[in-house]
Amino acid sequence: MSFHKQFIYITIKIISIMEKYEVRVRYTFEGTYKVVAEDRDEAERIVTEDCGLVLGGNIHTTRDDDEVTEWRFSSHPDMQILSFRERVDKGKVRYTSMCFSDRIEELRKDIIEAIRQLLDAHGLKKITFTDNEEDPVWIIWFDDNAEPYECYVTGIEVTDKHITVLTTIKDSMEEVFCQSPFELGASNIDWLNQMYEAVRLQLENTKGNS
Question: For residue 110, what is the enclosing H or E element?
């Protein structure tokens, strides 16, 4: 007596279902115009109103050569992904995913770099604020136990690698500092922008009174 074993082989074809996505991006060209102007406001107006770039064209200006003397821009832009949007049947949007982390980090670095450039222009690496009684920059500092304390910024020190925010606790008058990018006082972009403005105003007033 013999047994015949019959094997049936079933081939399963896996079909990959492709989805439709709209990926919103931003291309950024960064460079410098050299402008001849009476003051900063006029220089800003010249660049804003009379200089530009058209997709498929070149950097250009409508001003004369003795007004806009030179410009330097990279030919390769930086790209940021702004959002993902998935569309389903009949073009309906299933979801939209926004991307902010890279833009926030880039803005944080840009503000710190702007503070560094302000200080470098005056031969400084550190600044102490002298008008804290009038309108100080307020931040929140956390101790090792994650307890929050309201502080006002008394100074800033910037190196090639990081920024140090010097502060004083409002209630105890204890001096503390924030340094790591993981510390809120050295990473919050709104507070950093206020610090930049405080540095700019103090340096401008110092220059005006010198």
Answer: helix 101-121
Residue with the two structure tokens 């925010």: 165
Q: Map tokens 């030919």 to a residue.
A: 75
Residue at 44: amino acid letter: E
- Taking the C-alpha atoms of residue 14 and residue 16, their distance in angstroms, rounded to an integer, is 6
Summary count for the chain: helices (H), strands (E) = 3, 12
**CB-based contacts of 137, cutoff 8 Å, min separation 6:** 129, 152, 153, 191, 194, 195, 198
Range 103-106 contact pairs with CB under 8 angstroms and sequence separation of 24 or more? 104/189, 106/80
| CB contact at 8 A, 142 and 184 | yes
Of all helices (H) and strands (E), which one includes residue 195? helix 189-209
Question: Is residue 71 helix, strand or coil?
Answer: strand
CB 34, CB 46: distance < 8 Å:
no
Local mean pLDDT, 10-residue blocks, the chain (210 residues): 49 64 80 90 91 78 84 78 74 72 86 92 91 83 92 91 90 91 87 94 72
Q: Where are the beta strands (DSSP E) in 66-174?
A: 68-73, 78-87, 93-98, 126-128, 138-142, 148-158, 163-169
- Torsion angle of alpha carbons 127, 129, 135, 141, nearest 10°? 70
